[in-house]
Design a protein that fits this description.
Layout lengths: L5 H21 L14 E2 L2 E2 H23 L8 H21 L7 H10 L2 H6 L8 H30 L6 H21 L6 H7 L7 H10 L1 H31 L8 H18 L7 H27 L5 H16 L6 H8 L6 H25 L6 H31 L7
Antiparallel strand pairs: 1-2
C-alpha cells in the first residue's frame, strides 16, 4: 500500500520540481546584489543603484508584455520558453562581465526582461488544481529561500575564489545551470489538472483581449485595491532584496554572507507551512478571505517590527527577520493563494498569469519610481533608514486598503454566484 495517495504524491512532486525550478532560475537573477560596488557611480547616481534600476526596467517591460503573452500562452513546449529566456539572461551576465563599466549597465536590462517572464511560465504548470495552494506556496516561497541562498552563493564565490564582483553573476549561473535543467525536465513530467481539479477550481484557459477587458470591467474596484496592495508589497520586497547587502553592511554584518540564509530560511519554512495549510479549505471564497487576513497581518508585523527597530527595541538581525516575514506575508499570498482562489471562487474565465502580470507591472513601476525618487531628489538617507521609514508609512496605508478589498469581495459575493 502506497504511503501517499496518487493526488498527494503528484502534489508533492509538483511542489518540489516547481520550487527547484524557480530557485535555480533565481541563480541567474539576483546574485549581483551581494556586491556593493563601493565608490562607483553612473553619472549622478550610485553604480549599483543604476544596475538595479536597469534590471528592474527589464522586469517592468516584461510584466506589461506578459499581461498578453502569459495570459494567452498555450500549454505546449513551455520548457523551450524557459531555456531560451534563461539562456538570454545568462548571456547578459557574460556581457556584463566582459564589457567595461559603466557601459555594462545596459546588460542588466537585457537580463531582466527574459527573467520577468519566467514566473508566469512556471506557475502555468501548477495552477487550477485542488492542491495548488500547497504547490503554489512551495513555488512562491522559492522567492524567499533563493533570495537569501543566491546571495550566500555569490558571497561565497567572492570569498573563496576571489572572483571579481563583475564575474559573480555569471559564475553563479554556472553553478545553477545543471540543476535547473534537471528541474525543468521534472516539471515537464507534472500531469495536467484532472477533471476533479477543473470542477473544484475552474478550468484555466488562454485569454483573449476581450476576456481580459471583461474581467477588468466586472471587478475593477477590487482589482484596483489588490493592485495597490501588491504595489506596496513589491516596493517592500525589492528594496529589501536588492539592497539587503547594503543594509547588513550599514548595520555591521558586512563580513557575514551567511546572514542572508539565516534570515530567509526560517521565513521560508513558516510561510510554506502557513500557505500550504490553506489547501484544507475546499471553499475557495473562504480561502480568499483567509488570504486577505494573511496580508493584513503581514502589514501589521512589518510596521510593528520596524517601529520597534527604529526605537532600538529590536536588534538588527531580528528586525530583518521580522520585517521580512511581514512583507512576505503580504507578497506571497498573491503568488500562491489569492489569484488562484479568486478565479475559482467567482468562476472567472481566465488564468492566474493575467492577474499576476497586471499586478506586477504596476508593482515594478512603483519600485523603479521609489529608487529614482531617492536618487533624483538626493534624499540623504542610508538604505536602512530609507527602508525603515518607507515600511512604516506603507504598512499603515496597506492595512486600510486590505480592509477595503475584503469588504469589496465580500459584497461582491452577495451578488455573484460562487463556486462552492
Amino acid at each position: 500500500m502506497p504511503l501517499l495517495s496518487k493526488d498527494k504524491s503528484t502534489a508533492l512532486y509538483a511542489a518540489l520540481v516547481s520550487f527547484g525550478t524557480y530557485v535555480f532560475v533565481f541563480g541567474f537573477r539576483k546574485s549581483f546584489t551581494v556586491c556593493t560596488f563601493d565608490g562607483m557611480t553612473f553619472g549622478p547616481i550610485a553604480y549599483k543603484t543604476a544596475l538595479v534600476i536597469s534590471q528592474m526596467l527589464g522586469y517592468l517591460l516584461a510584466k506589461f508584455y506578459g499581461i498578453r503573452f502569459i495570459s494567452g500562452m498555450q500549454k505546449v513546449n513551455r520548457y523551450k520558453i524557459i531555456f531560451v529566456l534563461t539562456g538570454i539572461a545568462w548571456a547578459a551576465w557574460l556581457l556584463f562581465a566582459v564589457v567595461p563599466a559603466p557601459y555594462n549597465v545596459l546588460f542588466l536590462f537585457m537580463n531582466g526582461f527574459p527573467l520577468g517572464m519566467l514566473w508566469g511560465v512556471v506557475f502555468s504548470y501548477v495552477e487550477g488544481r485542488k492542491s495548488t495552494d500547497f504547490i503554489g506556496a512551495a513555488l512562491a516561497v522559492s522567492f524567499i529561500f533563493s533570495a537569501g541562498w543566491v546571495k550566500s552563493v555569490g558571497g561565497w564565490l567572492m570569498l573563496q575564489f576571489h572572483i571579481s564582483e563583475f564575474w559573480v553573476p555569471f559564475c553563479t549561473g554556472l553553478v545553477f545551470a545543471l540543476p535547473l535543467i534537471i528541474c525543468v525536465y521534472g516539471l515537464e513530467k507534472v500531469p495536467p489538472p484532472t477533471p476533479e481539479d477543473e470542477l473544484l477550481r475552474a478550468q484555466r484557459i488562454p485569454m483573449t483581449a476581450a476576456d481580459r477587458t471583461s474581467l477588468l470591467l466586472q471587478y475593477l474596484p477590487g482589482i484596483i485595491a489588490f493592485v495597490a496592495i501588491y504595489l506596496f508589497a513589491t516596493i517592500f520586497r525589492d528594496i529589501r532584496d536588492n539592497f539587503s547587502a547594503d543594509m547588513w553592511k550599514e548595520m555591521g554584518y558586512g563580513s557575514k554572507p551567511e546572514v542572508f540564509s539565516q534570515t530567509e530560511i526560517p521565513i521560508t519554512i513558516f510561510i510554506l507551512i502557513l500557505m500550504g495549510a490553506v489547501v484544507v479549505l475546499k471553499n475557495s471564497f473562504k480561502a480568499l478571505m483567509v488570504a486577505h487576513v494573511f496580508i493584513l497581518f503581514g502589514f501589521m508585523i512589518a510596521g510593528t517590527s520596524t517601529y520597534c527597530f527604529t526605537h532600538q527595541l529590536l536588534a538588527p538581525f531580528w528586525w530583518m527577520l521580522w520585517v521580512g516575514l511581514g512583507l512576505y506575508l503580504v507578497y506571497i499570498p498573491f503568488n500562491s493563494i489569492f489569484f488562484d482562489r479568486l478565479i475559482a471562487a467567482f468562476s472567472m474565465k481566465g488564468n492566474v498569469g493575467f492577474f499576476i502580470y497586471l499586478a506586477d507591472s504596476v508593482g515594478y513601476v512603483g519600485s523603479v519610481g521609489v529608487m529614482l525618487f531617492k536618487e533624483g531628489m538626493k534624499v540623504q538617507l542610508k538604505w536602512t533608514q530609507f527602508f525603515s521609514q518607507s515600511v512604516m508609512i506603507l504598512s499603515l496605508v496597506g492595512v486600510f486598503i486590505t480592509l477595503y478589498a475584503m469588504y469589496y469581495f465580500f459584497s461582491k459575493s452577495k451578488t455573484t454566484p460562487l463556486m462552492q
